[in-house]
Specification:
Distance between the termini: 25 Å
Number of helices: 32
Strand order of the largest sheet: 3-7-8-6
Largest sheet: 4 strands, mixed
Helix content: 55-70%
Number of domains: 3
């Protein structure tokens, strides 16, 4: 099924990356497709359908443009150190731009005479441009720049800056400097008299720097001062470089429109891959596209290691997100909550940025390697690895990592039980879903052509979804056996259906009994329990609950029995059942993998052209997700079902979310291409200004973290072979 969306910015620059979208204040969350197959007794093709997760509020967290992850992401800073903490904030950058003549004459004279007393030879040498500095002195100099976020301003500081540039040019260990450091070095050499050697070092820094570093340099280095300080032939070289390296040339940069174009020269320094350095960039002011661009310069082995490192690191970060979210919900007052929320925003933003870079790395593997090469690099699991794989797909229960904690029905005497809390929260959660999925999707809305897209439009979009998915994963299944989806025609049922119309036909059929509708409603309640991230997941962690069901959906433990009872309580009356049926009828999308059928909504969103453009991109992502469901090998699906819940949802929905995001990694750089826009938005909308397209994680399932833990445990290649080829032994089957 489809879910709510969250967004980040594909470019994830501290100012223009993807966003995460969630139900926001409604507290509704879901994923793209419910991991478990629905077993309601509907004849409209929805019985075994897997729901696409509702759009989530991961909004524009990464770029500071809105709410995220179902929590409040408004006001997330987009540059430098997040939440204004420490060097690298916008304020610090402005101070750097103004304060590049730090120290002045008195500091320079005092520093010189102090050095003359302690190291007379070096002092005299440095006064006349000498560059004899130890590694320790240079490291201390760079550390000082970082701590102050300003130049040093001593009599020999420009000498140190030139030596640092030389060591950076030769890729000397310890001198892999960032864009912010480069800006400070340039300002250091521009302060006072700028010699010919200073000019050459500045040109070396500029002409050999990557796009992300250039953007950061010109946030802090005044172009006018640069042009006024660099003379003669070097000035001509500098001006010529501006014209070829930036969109719009020098005039654009002078107007703060810094958009580097073109590639790096062959002699640009390249340092060995280091995850610590990568993580600094992931948590700093670099855009996702810039980080990916930098990683592309490394060897395939280094890029794969980077993807593995990010995958391993995300588990602890994801756990931190859960911890902070739970703490925010229990904060004693608004001030405490806001402080926790600010930290949560930062951690969540960094996690989503890392996910985009990580998924690009896995996309590269599957595009670079032939199926036979990929298979040769997959591993055969040991018994211990098989156990680890099974453990990886079990959702955490709020206890210490690796240490099972017993379920606590009641946390303290006199407090409500787990079941009582779930029962109290369920009506509000259901109402929030109704507001989201059913309120504006009533019969009068469906009968109004002005409010509806057509199935033919969705058929065209489904073709693009299939083509893009086949580009990435098509080597692992018979593409010809998975034909393009075809829209229903009057009197002829095919493979792509109007979900609302199908469900309405079922619900109004005279042969449909109340028991049928009740079974359908109860299955939806269980979908909420298994996929809601704002209410049920925190409740499970608080009580160390891990509701377990066998493959026949029989409750196996006390917390599962509590959910079973609440689901019955929520589906007792006709009004309760009708409300849930209307949510199902208005759901965004679903798939029936055995029959390779997909169900989709056709309602136009309110809000005009831009909203409808976004709707088409959203449905494009939904159809990728649903198509991937139809590609899962039969043995894989059987294995997933044999595990029961919650592991089944992880393998079906969580893993589908992971795979559709890998496909999106191949699409993301092209979302403004006119050709792709015409296919997705249609020619009329493509003629309009492009919108900011939200990433695929806008509909990520709550079980995504467990899916990525499985990838960590067995390897990306093993997952590909299991999902598409049915080689379930690769994942512990």
């Amino acid at each position: 099924m489809s879910a709510q969306t969250f967004q980040l910015d594909t470019d994830l620059a501290p100012a223009a990356e993807p966003t995460i979208d969630s139900p926001g204040s409604t507290g509704v969350h879901s994923g793209l497709d419910n991991g478990a197959e629905r077993t309601s007794a509907t004849r409209a093709g929805m019985a075994g359908a897997e729901k696409v997760q509702p759009r989530r509020g991961l909004g524009r967290a990464v770029e500071g443009k809105g709410p995220g992850l179902g929590r409040d992401f408004s006001g997330v800073p987009v540059g430098g150190a997040r939440a204004g903490a420490g060097p690298g904030t916008g304020t610090a950058r402005k101070a750097t731009k103004k304060g590049s003549d730090r120290g002045g004459v008195l500091q320079t004279i005092g520093s010189f005479f102090s050095s003359l007393v302690s190291h007379p030879g070096d002092a005299i040498s440095h006064l006349f441009g000498g560059e004899s500095f130890t590694q320790t002195q240079l490291a201390s100099y760079l550390d000082g720049l970082k701590q102050r976020n300003d130049i040093e301003g001593d009599f020999d500081s420009d000498n140190k800056a030139r030596v640092v540039v030389k060591k950076w040019k030769s890729a000397t260990a310890g001198f892999d400097i960032t864009g912010r450091q480069k800006a400070l070095l340039i300002n250091e050499m521009l302060s006072g008299v700028t010699t010919g050697d200073d000019e050459q070092a500045i040109l070396d820094l500029l002409t050999r720097s990557e796009n992300g570093d250039l953007r950061l340099i010109f946030e802090a280095v005044p172009v006018s001062k640069l042009l006024n300080s660099v003379d003669g032939a070097n000035n001509k070289k500098l001006r010529a470089w501006f014209e070829t390296r930036f969109d719009g040339g020098l005039k654009a940069v002078q107007k703060d429109r810094v958009k580097p174009v073109g590639g790096l020269p062959a002699n640009a320094p390249l340092f060995p891959y280091d995850f610590a350095r990568l993580r600094i960039k992931l948590e700093g002011p670099y855009r996702v596209a810039e980080i990916i661009e930098e990683l592309a310069r490394h060897t395939p082995a280094e890029r794969e290691q980077a993807a593995k490192d990010m995958l391993s690191a995300r588990d602890a970060i994801s756990a931190k997100v859960d911890e902070l979210g739970d703490k925010a919900g229990k904060a004693p007052d608004h001030a405490a909550r806001d402080a926790i929320q600010a930290e949560l925003n930062t951690v969540q933003t960094n996690l989503l940025r890392m996910d985009l870079v990580m998924e690009d790395g896995f996309k590269d593997i599957v595009l670079r390697e032939s199926p036979s090469d990929l298979k040769s690099k997959a591993i055969t699991l040991t018994p211990a690895q098989k156990l680890a794989a099974r453990d990886a797909i079990k959702p955490p229960t709020g206890g210490p990592p690796g240490a099972p904690v017993a379920f606590k029905s009641q946390l303290a005497p006199g407090q409500p039980t787990y079941e009582e809390k779930l029962r109290a929260a369920s009506p509000g959660m259901i109402d929030a879903y109704w507001q989201l999925m059913a309120k504006d999707r009533q019969p009068s809305d469906h009968s109004d052509p002005a409010k509806m897209h057509t199935l033919q439009e969705m058929e065209d979009l489904a073709k693009v979804s299939k083509d893009e998915t086949d580009v990435v994963f098509g080597g692992y299944y018979d593409k010809a056996a998975h034909k393009p989806m075809k829209a229903d025609k009057p009197g002829k049922r095919r493979s792509l259906h109007d979900l609302w119309a199908d469900q309405q036909a079922f619900l109004t059929d005279t042969s449909t009994t109340f028991a049928d509708k009740k079974a359908m409603a109860k299955a939806l309640v269980f979908y909420f329990f298994r996929n809601d991230e704002d209410i049920v997941a925190p409740l499970n962690r608080e009580h160390h609950a891990s509701p377990s069901f066998n493959k026949s959906d029989v409750a196996l433990n006390d917390e599962a029995k509590a959910q079973e009872q609440v689901a019955r309580d929520m589906t007792k009356t006709a009004p309760q059942v009708r409300k849930l049926n209307e949510i199902d009828r208005g759901w965004d999308g679903s798939a029936n993998p055995p029959t390779k059928e997909v169900n989709i909504q056709l309602f136009r969103p309110k809000g005009g052209v831009a909203k409808d453009q976004d709707f088409m991109w959203d449905m494009f992502q939904v159809l990728i997700h649903e198509y991937i469901h139809t590609l899962a090998a039969g043995k894989y699906r059987t294995f997933a079902k044999s595990l029961g819940e919650p592991r089944q949802t992880v393998l079906i929905e969580g893993m589908d979310s992971f795979l559709d995001e890998v496909v999106w990694a191949n699409i993301r750089p092209r979302v403004t291409d006119l050709g792709l826009r015409q296919k997705v938005e249609g020619p009329a909308y493509a003629a309009q200004p492009p919108i900011t397209v939200e990433p695929a994680y806008r509909r990520r399932y709550q079980s995504f973290p467990e899916a990525t833990r499985l990838v960590t445990a067995v390897g990306f290649r093993n997952v590909i072979l299991a999902y598409f080829k049915g080689d379930i032994e690769r994942i512990g089957g």
